[in-house]
Amino acid sequence: MHDSFENQSWPPSASFEQLRLRAGAYESIREFFKQRKVLEVDTPSLSVATTPDPNIHSFETHFHGGGEEQQQHRYLITSPEFHMKRLLAAGSGCIYQICHVFRQAELGSQHNPEFTMLEWYRIGMDYHSLMKEVAELVSLLLTVELTEPEYLTYQAAFLRYVGIDPLTATLTELRQQAQKAGLTLPAAGQDDKDLYLDYLMATQVQPQLGNGRLTFIYEYPASQCALARIASDNNQIAERFELFLEGIELANGFHELADAEQQLQRFRSELERRAQAGMPPVTIDQHLIAALAGGFPDCSGVALGLDRLIQFISNQKSINDVLAFPFNRA
Questions:
Q1: Is 325 helix (H, G, I), strand (E, B) or coil?
Q2: pLDDT digit string (tens) for 248-284?
């Protein structure tokens, strides 16, 4: 940035070199998918529904035009997933999208409330094959040489770095392990095994991942299945993966759940968890449920945080340094 802009709030945070780097990354991504005949799509930023996941907080707004009967509640999307799945159910074939998404309560050196997501879906591809495609794309974008990607099950990662089996550990064992690590959960969460696993993952496992290479963690506990299928040969695990680089999470992928009734039940369970945590209810996406019921192709999908990846590529300490106008300048 030009010296004369120093300590002023109106110019962009990112340098034009950074903005050119981002533009080049977008060109490479589009060429990557063009070569694979994956269609680029564009879907709404405003939605009638949002994810009920209690760990994800949505921005809410209202539409006031067209008379009182047209006034409608809306959410800013936290992901393009639900709309993209409706396209898949309608017969789009393999698709991808680069878009802005919005999440409340996320602000810091690696978080901006509005951020850029690359999301794509591959019909007929299992999530192991998708992990390899993710590795290929990220390696293409990186400007440094890494060693071969590492693939670890969630269970193996916990055994290696925490010394416990996350699939069989009791609540007491998890609580003791958390206490040894100096972690104390709020009273409301002390009977929640997944909260302990999340804390241990974030503080004991994640910092060890992706050192000089891409590390994929897969086969998450079934209780953390989100929108992923439960493995057909082991109901303890979900067909879900995450990608880490230098201790930072970059991507989250699934072998996508295609069962409408099961998806609706998961949404309802998440609404119950929201209520237990004193959080307001949100609207379930009935369009998505109808799309799944109408026939959803066997596919795997992944969402990748582009701002974090560009932050890593350009060796910037803050995400603000790769955004033209972050939250405090928007």
A1: coil
A2: 999 999 999 999 999 999 999 999 988 988 889 999 9
